[in-house]
Amino acid sequence: VWTDVQSPGKPEIMSLTCKSGNTLFLRWMRPEVFYRTVDVYAVHYRARQAGAEMEWEQQMVETVNNTINHMMYINNLTTNTAYEVRVRAATQSLVGVKKVHEGEWS
Question: Between the CA of residue 46 and those of 4, 51, 68, 80, what are the distances in Å?
């Protein structure tokens, strides 16, 4: 019988700032609760427009040496537009080759 890891907790977004008219800088911390490692983060973002539900864009960020503090630039955005951003941590299964345990969104 094999036991597997569980999904990690929520990452904490520490800052989200506008670096130019079309670039955001995002910094987040590893979840406080995780099992073994956090292997990858999914960063989703979308424009916020009144009366419209926009599609999420996604960027995957792989971790290195189980780093605690993470950061990235989100480029090629539309100037003078509000954006919604969320981050989710995931841990690779110990028993399923392609299985990933995803945590909750920040």
Answer: 33, 14, 25, 13
